[in-house]
Amino acid sequence: MKTLPKLLSALILATAPVVAAPSPAAAVTPAAAAPPYHVVRPGETIKSIAAAYGIRRADLRAWNGLIKPNQPSPDGVLHLAEPAGGRLTGWRSWIEKVTPGTVNWNAKDKCPVLPADLRKVWVTYIDFYGVSHQGSIVVHRTIATRTQRAFQSLYRMRFRIQGMSPMTLNAPYIDDMGTVTAGYSCRVVNGSKTWSQHAYGKAIDVNPVQNPMVRGRYIDPAGGTDFLRRGLYRRGMMHASGAVRAFTDQGFYWGGRWNSLKDDMHFSMNNR
Ligand SMILES: [Zn+2]
């Protein structure tokens, strides 16, 4: 059974997204190929964005399900036309237990956490085309609720995520799994024998390509070289004044604040 905790149900109601079926006319606009969008920068408002594009404030709010007087958040991505894929649906989330098979658990790997202590958290997210999906992320059971809240905040901000599992369903056009927003992974820190916080299920990577890890000249993933200018506001990038807050407000630490290296995609519970 997919039952929602009481508190979460209350949160969902508080989100109050606009749910409307797309009109047939909207569904066949050329916008389906390249939906126009705007990435919100610090200080921008519905008024300033609408004025910049010469559109009505009420339309901008309606296309993006932004209820007055809420203002957009930096790193949020707003539709600049009626969304071809239909307006956003309500945010939904639930938590499932995992089986050893789900997390590729094998006793001989000596992973530090047992599958019984991991949970699969399902959340609604918005992809790079502005379409919403149910994506899942595996984390330690002790951070399942705050993970839900962080992703709910991202959704409210209209932040976009390139892909979440199951990718075959959510983003079949992507074959590079290095793009996936994910949590648990039984692995060591690169170039060491120390377990990564991901191996404990206590770290989450968001949009790796758009928020790469940078250590000197080493960049991971390699595709992240296009996103080294962090002062830009582009789809999927996270900044301290914007999407990062979805996680730090829930007690996560951000790898973008490290000095030895910068890991803008990385959020963890112990700042490692
Ligand atoms: Zn990470």
Automatic annotation (TrEMBL):
Residues covered by the LysM domain: 36-80
SUPFAM superfamilies the UniProt entry points to: Hedgehog/DD-peptidase, LysM domain
Matches recorded under Gene3D superfamilies: 3.30.1380.10, LysM domain
Record GO terms (molecular function): peptidase activity
Keywords, alphabetical: Signal
Keyword Signal: yes
Residues annotated as signal peptide: 1-20
Entries under InterPro entries matching the protein: LysM (IPR018392), LysM_dom_sf (IPR036779), Peptidase_M15C (IPR039561), Zn_M74/Hedgehog-like (IPR009045)
PROSITE patterns: LYSM (PS51782)
Protein known as: LysM domain-containing protein
